[in-house]
């Protein structure tokens, strides 16, 4: 067992959100240690597509966080040491509607987003192929979202951790949140020793509920499984992130059953990524042929050329689902010194920068740029831990 050491903040979870919390806390002058039972980006982050989206968010707290995060991602992408390392690509998104009724609903949704500060540009049916020449014929129209972007998530998380200069402690499982006599957090115990700090940040993503329980509080984070199909490398035939309008409804759904809606995007490396599926089946990592068939069928409806393209592999991940679809961000009033930054579902890559920035402001006693009340960790009925 290693000897205990002391720092200002210990962040639990080296995924994208934990990496961003570490970076912004370190930039704020705090001595930070980042601990994870596995490698950097070894959980949900490593199984993500790297989407930085505003297009799928209705006006409200999550969209406000997405807009803040988007500005911060641009700042990071423009930093000399991170410019190409994180594979940031401001390619924009295109949300398509198959029917006139679907287009009316999409344009109404987009109008509300524009009022909240989103760039949402209507695209008539006869102009769709100017944006995406390979799209299927007969679609009713679309909305173009130039603010949507993408990073390579595992690379981005690793480079943010490196840029932070913080101590990285991988291969260490947190077994307890240490408490003082008055109940305040004072660090964590791991299977390889203790880390003492007056602030503990739960950035454990899909496993955030388990980390909260180590501190004696409940947080209703549940795993929501999703698959991604990866094609053979191709020339750039899909220029934007392209998805069907019903994807937004699937994201907002409370259903535990399998849901799929076509999401197709090219990557800088050449392969096309095809999603998106959602189902609540616990941490079941079983291969699901029905889910993958639905993904392939939906993608070829949008882009017929894909019917002749080989899928080389598939992977799955578990999105950290919360009952109201908002993450837990900020201090936990039940345990002074405990902070949460988890439960972002499928939006954690995009929302990570804003989350880390806001948490760093809280940790250093500043007023956060956004109202954190909607993200309060104790907003749910408490279960016995």
UniProtKB/TrEMBL annotation:
Pfam families, per the entry: DAO
Top-rank taxon, per record: Bacteria
GO CC, one annotated term: cytoplasm
Stated name of the protein: Oxidoreductase
Gene3D superfamilies: D-Amino Acid Oxidase, subunit A, domain 2 (3.30.9.10), FAD/NAD(P)-binding domain (3.50.50.60)
Coiled coil listed as a keyword: no
GO molecular function: oxidoreductase activity
């Amino acid at each position: 067992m290693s000897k205990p050491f002391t720092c200002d903040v210990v962040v639990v979870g080296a995924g994208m959100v934990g990496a961003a919390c570490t970076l912004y806390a370190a930039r704020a002058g705090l001595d930070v240690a980042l601990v994870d039972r596995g490698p950097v980006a070894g959980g949900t982050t490593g199984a993500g597509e790297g989407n930085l989206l505003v297009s799928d968010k209705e006006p409200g707290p999550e969209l406000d966080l997405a807009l803040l995060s988007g500005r911060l991602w641009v700042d990071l992408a423009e930093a000399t040491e991170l410019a190409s390392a994180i594979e940031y690509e401001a390619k924009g998104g295109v949300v398509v509607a198959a029917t006139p009724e679907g287009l009316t609903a999409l344009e109404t949704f987009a109008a509300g987003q524009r009022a909240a500060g989103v760039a949402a540009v209507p695209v008539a049916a006869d102009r769709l192929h100017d944006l995406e020449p390979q799209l299927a014929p007969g679609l009713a129209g679309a909305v173009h979202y130039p603010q949507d972007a993408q990073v390579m998530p595992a690379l981005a998380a690793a480079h943010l951790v490196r840029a932070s200069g913080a101590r990285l402690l991988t291969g260490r499982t947190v077994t307890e949140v240490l408490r003082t006599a008055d109940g305040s957090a004072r660090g964590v115990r791991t299977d390889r020793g203790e880390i003492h700090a007056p602030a503990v940040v739960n950035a454990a993503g899909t496993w955030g509920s388990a980390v909260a329980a180590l501190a004696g509080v409940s947080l209703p984070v549940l795993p929501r499984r999703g698959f991604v199909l990866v094609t053979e490398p191709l020339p750039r035939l899909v220029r934007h992130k392209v998805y069907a309008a019903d994807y937004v409804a699937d994201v907002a759904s409370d259903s535990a059953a399998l849901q799929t809606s076509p999401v197709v995007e090219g990557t800088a490396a050449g392969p096309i990524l095809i999603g998106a599926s959602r189902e609540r089946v616990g941490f079941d990592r079983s291969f699901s042929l029905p889910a993958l068939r639905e993904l392939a069928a939906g993608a070829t409806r949008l882009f017929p050329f894909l019917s002749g393209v080989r899928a080389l592999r598939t992977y799955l991940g578990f999105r950290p689902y919360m009952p109201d679809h908002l993450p837990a961000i900020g201090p936990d009033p039940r345990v002074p010194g405990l902070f949460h930054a988890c439960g972002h579902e499928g939006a954690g890559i995009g929302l990570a920068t804003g989350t880390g920035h806001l948490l760093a402001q809280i940790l250093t006693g500043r007023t956060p740029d956004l109202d954190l009340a909607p993200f309060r960790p104790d907003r749910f009925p408490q279960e016995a831990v």
